[in-house]
């Protein structure tokens, strides 16, 4: 079965869904192919940064989106031996949305695609696994995929790969990436959140580990750092060894770690970071993690993926309507988004390089007793000076990214 459209977008994540919505609202025929039969993945990025909320507002969606269940992260807190200490707040940001909205990504994607269905130009195919590019001498002309009812081919003026860090279109297109080497991996799991816990985002460095806690209502979604490529060794040591490490890092979880009864409750995120030398070839463009895999530090993945989508719609809508998308048009998208992406990747890369030093210094300065007078004195001194820097420099970058995009009307 051969189908025809103006643009086929492969990957129903944040970048693909937002791009498809933005094209369909301009009456550009777009088919969105999602390999799975639903959007429900465990431990996907749940953060909607102020830059994303501003984009949703410009699209006329913010008010309805924020009617969905979510929590608001308006400050960053460090859990220390001195107790919870606020590191920085978002109140100084010049925006209608001085917070990060924490919303399960499945709800965000369902919302965007349901809104897109209002436009006749939009078509969504779930369970569509792309296995081949349609190519001729002029470049990529679409894709072949297997759906629930068998094989299909969809021909399009433009094919966009927005299929994430394990991009099939990246492989099929033969793209080459420049990779970096983060020093840690991350384990995701959930533990019960008690009312006395307070605070919406907490983080700490203790006992050689980083622990991040995201408020998900009745639960904490926790990210626990482990040395790069050490997961198999940790798993061989048994779940009790992991529970012990978590409890040592966060003593208040000493009883709650018993909730982890099976390795199925723990998800490994192998931290990667790379960027394609070229994001496009004739008829094909990659965006989001398909073009540049982002470290989870700072929640940059969803932020930069959606901004890629906005830039793509802004730049390519007119060529798509005109019926001709040139290689020069695709190159404009990469030029627009490449330097913000590489800049934030350089900043995060520096954090990754400094992290092992920080973890080792933490162990040496504070020692095995995380509540030692010496450790508390050092910590109090550091916290006195860190907040102004974080609020003035780090918070705006976390909230908006580098060179944020806006919807061109």
Describe the structure.
The chain is of the alpha+beta class. It has two domains: 2-74 and 101-180 and 272-347, FAD/NAD(P)-binding domain, CATH 3.50.50.60; 184-271 and 357-400, 2-Layer Sandwich (D-Amino Acid Oxidase, Chain A, domain 2). The protein is 37% helix and 28% strand. It has ten helices and 20 strands. The protein has helices spanning 14-24, 50-58, 62-65, 105-116, 168-173, 231-237, 239-249, 300-322, 327-366, 373-400; strands at 2-10, 30-34, 47-48, 71-73, 75-80, 83-89, 100-102, 122-126, 129-136, 139-147, 150-161, 177-179, 184-192, 201-206, 209-216, 219-227, 267-269, 274-276, 280-281, 284-286. The strands form four sheets. Strands 1, 2, 8, 9, 10, 11, 19 and 20 form an eight-stranded mixed sheet that branches. A hairpin with a 2-residue loop joins strand 5 (75-80) and strand 6 (83-89). Helix 8 runs antiparallel to helix 9. The longest helix is centred in the C-terminal third of the chain and has 40 residues, at 327-366. It is globular and about 65 Å long. The mean pLDDT is 88.
């Amino acid at each position: 079965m051969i189908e025809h459209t103006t643009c086929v977008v492969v990957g129903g994540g944040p970048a693909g869904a937002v791009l498809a919505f933005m094209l369909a609202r301009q009456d550009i025929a777009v088919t969105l192919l999602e390999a799975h039969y639903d959007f429900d993945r465990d431990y996907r990025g749940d953060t909607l940064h102020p830059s994303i909320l501003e984009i949703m507002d410009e699209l006329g969606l913010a008010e309805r989106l924020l009617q969905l269940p979510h929590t608001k992260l308006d400050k960053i807190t460090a859990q220390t031996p001195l107790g919870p200490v606020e590191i920085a707040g978002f109140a100084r940001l010049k925006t209608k949305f001085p917070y990060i909205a924490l919303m399960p990504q499945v709800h965000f994607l369902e919302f965007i695609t349901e809104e897109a269905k209002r436009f006749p130009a939009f078509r969504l195919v779930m369970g569509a696994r792309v296995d081949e590019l349609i190519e001729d001498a002029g470049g990529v002309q679409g894709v072949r995929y297997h759906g629930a009812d068998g094989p299909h081919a969809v021909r399009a003026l433009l094919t966009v790969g927005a299929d994430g860090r394990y991009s099939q279109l990246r492989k099929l297109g033969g793209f080459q990436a420049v990779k970096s080497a983060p020093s840690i991996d991350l384990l995701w799991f959930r533990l019960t959140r008690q009312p006395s816990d307070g605070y919406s985002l907490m983080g700490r460095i203790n006992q050689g580990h980083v622990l991040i806690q995201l408020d998900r209502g009745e639960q904490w979604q926790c990210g626990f750092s482990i040395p790069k490529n050490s997961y198999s060794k940790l798993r061989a040591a048994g779940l009790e060894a992991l529970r012990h490490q978590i409890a040592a890092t966060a003593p208040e979880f000493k009883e709650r770690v018993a909730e982890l009864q099976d390795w199925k409750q723990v998800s490994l995120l192998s931290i990667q970071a790379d960027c394609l030398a070229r994001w496009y070839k004739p008829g094909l463009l990659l965006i989001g993690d398909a073009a540049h895999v982002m470290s989870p530090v700072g929640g940059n993945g969803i932020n930069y993926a959606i901004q890629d989508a906005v830039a793509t719609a802004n730049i390519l809508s007119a060529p798509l309507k005109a019926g001709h998308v040139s290689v020069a048009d695709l190159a404009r998208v990469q030029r627009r988004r490449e330097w913000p992406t590489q800049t934030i990747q350089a900043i995060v890369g520096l954090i990754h390089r400094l992290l092992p030093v920080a973890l080792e210094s933490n162990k040496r300065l504070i020692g095995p007793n995380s509540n030692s007078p010496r450790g508390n004195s050092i910590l109090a001194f550091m916290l006195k000076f860190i907040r102004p820097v974080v609020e003035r420099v780090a918070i705006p970058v976390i909230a908006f990214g580098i060179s944020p995009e806006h919807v061109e009307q």
